Amino acid sequence: MSTVSTDQMKAWCEKIVKGREAAPDLTLGDYLAAAPSLDSLADVPAGTVVLVRGDVDAKPGDKVGEGDIRLRSMVDTLKHGVEKGWKQVVFGHIGRKPEGSLEKVAARLGELLGQNVPLIKDWVDTDTNEIKLSAAEAVKAADPGSVMVLENTRAYDIERVLWKAKVEDLDALAPKLAAFANSIAEHLSTVYVNEAFSAGSLDASSVVVPAAMDRVALGKYAAGEFNGPMQKCLKTDLAVFSGIKIDKLDDMEAMIARGTIKQIFASGSLAMAIRKAIGELDGKPVSLGAAEDPANSSEPWYIPPARVAQAKEIVADGREKGITFTVPCDSVVEDGSVKDELSPTDQQLDIGPKSIEAFSQAVGAFIERTGGKAVAFHNGVFGVFEDPKFEAGTKAWIPELKRMKEAGVEVYVGGGEGGKALEKYGEDDWVTHCFTAGGTVLNALGSEPVPYLVALKLAADK
Ligand SMILES: Nc1ncnc2c1ncn2[C@@H]1O[C@H](COP(=O)(O)OP(=O)(O)O)[C@@H](O)[C@H]1O
Ligand SMILES: O=C(OP(=O)(O)O)[C@H](O)COP(=O)(O)O
């Protein structure tokens, strides 16, 4: 059994927390080449306990097929383990809060696998961060070929301690994280599979537990997504960035640097930074309204001056490379009215009708220019689409994806809210492929490595 010392854990976590900074030259391809495949575990004998970090953040509906796409993504890997006679222990998070339960998820996994999938509710001693012996006994007593689920990892603080950790915090955190990982290795297993494609946060179950494992592997679904559709997206011609997370500008920069993008559509709240940048470059000042008022600096839609400066560099550099930028020219504000220019108190919550028309025309021009021989990647939503008052931009955009696909364009949709909008306003077959993950896809295509791939590489390199 592997045991990780506190110093080793500290060094491990430092690499995880630093991400790209720790290994600036590594690409997605390097991480994928390093991550062992499920087939590499062919010699693991029947009866072995195998940990599966699962993509269990799902809300199963009444029927199979509803709200369980991430659970279905795990079926091939889990069936493989059942056939091998492994005792598989699925663990992972549901939602952001500690209260979420995996009860429905375990039941739906049972339906998908055609076998009883029990939930082990109480499995970490919160004083010591070690595995409770009752949970270890339950796993030991399970039959070969069984599948169990451990209750929501985020119920325990240890799962979340790296989320906001800085390198200087690691002295205090390393002993606790080492205790957790070592206890899992001692009482559950040292064989670990990651089949949690969307779990891109710094959860201990994704990025720390591999430190104490003897064998690790990337699940079949995740490997297929990274090696298949993701590779197409790495060569996208058109990138659509939308939504509220302004740090997507970092990903835009990284994608542009890869050299294939010829056209960018920016929409939603984050597009305001690009719109202002274009205004400044072209001598036509643009107001961001409430989004540029420092009084709102703690709001998720606040756009700091540094982001406008970054957007200016992106646009100036992009134009030199021949990239065209399409951004909204009007906005829907809080009271539902449409404005070309925002007053200092207006908050932009959707794009207006002129912008909808402009994006549609730009899609037409893209299809004409490429003859449909192109790849398009879409991320995010064009407004607060959950509220009918602010859904028009997103609702009108989704059929444009269908239009592109029908013209021959390969259309990929990053999961997250963009995926939800496709579900709400379109059909699966309107696009070539919709990912089951939002953040992970942007990490893989953008500026930061996918944390769990970093951990699998570190484990494989041990
Ligand atoms: N002005 C806005 N434009 C777009 N989305 C917004 C805006 N204000 C708030 N949002 C919210 O941001 C979320 C989508 O943005 P984001 O989280 O960046 O997308 P994703 O989850 O696809 O990465 C949605 O819930 C949306 O309602
Ligand atoms: O829903 C998820 O990702 P997504 O919103 O990026 O698609 C994953 O469960 C990750 O969730 P997290 O962002 O709470 O770590």
Automatic annotation (TrEMBL):
Catalytically driven reaction(s): (2R)-3-phosphoglycerate + ATP = (2R)-3-phospho-glyceroyl phosphate + ADP
Biological-process GO terms, alphabetical: gluconeogenesis; glycolytic process
Highest taxon in the source lineage: Bacteria
One Gene Ontology cellular component annotation held by this UniProt entry: cytosol
Gene Ontology MF: a single term: phosphoglycerate kinase activity
A matching Pfam family: PGK
Enzyme Commission no: 2.7.2.3
Keywords: ATP-binding, Kinase, Nucleotide-binding, Transferase
UniProt enzyme class: transferase
Family in the record: Belongs to the phosphoglycerate kinase family.
Stated name of the protein: Phosphoglycerate kinase
Source species of the chain: Posidoniimonas corsicana
